[in-house]
Amino acid sequence: MVHVDPHEAGAVPAIELTGATKRFRTPSGTLHTAVRELDLTVAPGEFVAVVGPTGCGKSTTLTLVSGLEEPTEGEVRVYGEPVSGINGHVGFVFQQDAVFPWRTVLSNVMAGPRFRGVPADRAREKARDWLSRVGLSAFEDRYPHQLSGGMRKRVALAQTFVNDPRILLMDEPFSALDVQTRALMSDQLLELWAGTGSSVVFVTHDLDEAIALADRVVVMTAGPATVKEVFTVDLPRPRTVEAVRLEPRFVELYREIWASLGEEVRITRERGAGRAA
Amino acid sequence: MPLETAAPATPAVTRTEVRERAARNRKLGVYGARAAVLAAFLGLWEVCARTGVIDPFNFSQPSRIWAQIWQWVTHGTAQGSLGEQIGYTLYEALTGWVLGVVGGVLLGIALGRVRFLADVFGPYVKVLNAIPRIVLAPIFLIWFGLGPASKVASAVVLVFFPVFFNAFQGAREVDRNLVANARILGADSRKVTLQVVVPAATTWIFTSLHVSFGFALIGAIVGEYIGATKGLGLMVAAAQGTFNAAGVYAAMTILAVVALFTEGLLTFAEKRLFRWKPADAGDGR
Ligand SMILES: Nc1ncnc2c1ncn2[C@@H]1O[C@H](COP(=O)(O)OP(=O)(O)OP(=O)(O)O)[C@@H](O)[C@H]1O
Ligand SMILES: [Mg+2]
Residue A115: which of B177, B185, B199 has the nearest Cβ? Predict the structure, then answer.
């Protein structure tokens, strides 16, 4: 359990990775470094977007913070405490669909509180509240296969938010959605997040999304991942995705970040081509 | 373009109606053809037996089989009423099935979840599985006697392995994302097993339930055939002992009907249990 003195809350970073390295053993027996010497700090209540070439180690970084995986070297701290195992204050929206197909929508959202021993009545009440916030009240009796992809993602959001996480890890949560739905979901996410004061690490390939949502955008190097550059997004809040995209500062930031990221993407592509040759 | 001839006023409705009627006709056609195949087969058999093309003493004939069944229904069998024999066999098969399924599911999930157990017991399970288990029936007869216990034991060993392997596989192949999600949401290891692994493995387990009920019946029947005081298997053995071919076929027919009926019940239960699945996926037989 993490205990934070309210007077210190500002001083202790929500997430702190220092020299974090993660190596995987590949089937052929060699070691594959997915994340190398990664330093990253996220302040309480901060929204950080992470961008980087595909396969560079973004998802791996999130699993290190969540406690699903342990770093091979270095340290990961959440609210000042070293991560060991799953932390109850962390929420994780996965890259792939991870709602339980055999549970109804309501039951899926109730799952977290029920796992944590909240009585059924109270859990149902909380779940209904979050379902109404993501606009799915009318669908609470449906099974996931009866929903659209966007609806399933909203179930996943409600399922995560219902636990009141202080740290929210989101791994390309909207990548499977069409552009319009994605913009709507981004706005919805900003609304949901605004009330909670939680810290967010949001992995995405979409620079529009990254800049529109985040306080800072972290650009990762080609794999093994480490932080290449960090951009502060000085656009005023509250934002809506459609409006903020038209601001000159947005376009400027987009160009800068794209230049930085583009280089890493090129390296990754050349490596892939080189290996294939 | 046959569709253009349909009334232009409400084309959507007529087209649906046309399609529905076609589907209905197709269904009727299939049922009709099925009945015709059965009638032709039985008719040919009967005719061949009567004209002496095949020897009715060995191959019997449908009318005699029917007469035999009718006699059992109205006058009972040598061991008691027909219902009692069916009940006896079903009781043995069902008991063996339940025990085998419970054991198979519990052990399969335990070994699928706990690596250590899988590593320790894996080779033993493989060795046991390699034994042709039907030859155990005589041994069980020696161990457990003529009563139902020996038949239940044969059914259990036949049912256990397919269920075990399916449950094991199901527990192994659970989507890692679902497990990770449950752990993040706050589930401890026990809750992950009960609320993620078990539901995810039910699809696998259910496929094996269909097959394994057939195995349970086989176990019970073979056990009865070898030695028993009651049951359908004993009826087969008794009929065979008196060179009553019609009796053997009649007992087999009753068995087939019983097996089909229980199979239908299982399919029904499966449909109720898998409401969360897309409509076409639950149809794996
Ligand atoms: N469990 C694992 N075992 C072995 N290698 C792994 C494992 N998980 C990830 N990797 C490797 O680590 C590297 C980084 O993977 P990761 O999933 O973190 O990439 P990513 O940045 O999230 O990519 P994407 O943007 O495509 O999702 C990849 O090369 C991948 O092959
Ligand atoms: Mg990823």
Answer: B185
Ligand 1 atom at minimal distance to the Cα of residue A63: 18
| Contact (Cβ atoms closer than 8 angstroms) between residue A201 and residue A16 | no
A34 lines ligand 1 (CB under 6 A): yes
With beta carbons under 8 A apart, name residues in chain B contacting A100: 178, 181-182, 196, 199
Assembly ipTM: 0.87
C-beta neighbour count of B145 within 10 angstroms? 13
Is B199 close to A145, i.e. CB distance below 8 A? no
The CB of A56 under 6 Å from ligand 1? The reply is yes
pLDDT at B11: 58
Q: How far is CA B77 from each of CA A221, B60, B151, B217, B240, rounded to the nearest angstrom?
A: 83, 19, 20, 20, 14
pLDDT (0 to 100) of residue A224: 87
Which positions ≥6 away from A208 have C-beta within 8 Å? A241, A245, A254
In whole angstroms, what is the distance from residue B43 CA to residue A132 CA?
66
**pLDDT tens per residue across span B158-199:** 999 999 998 998 898 899 999 999 999 999 999 999 999 999
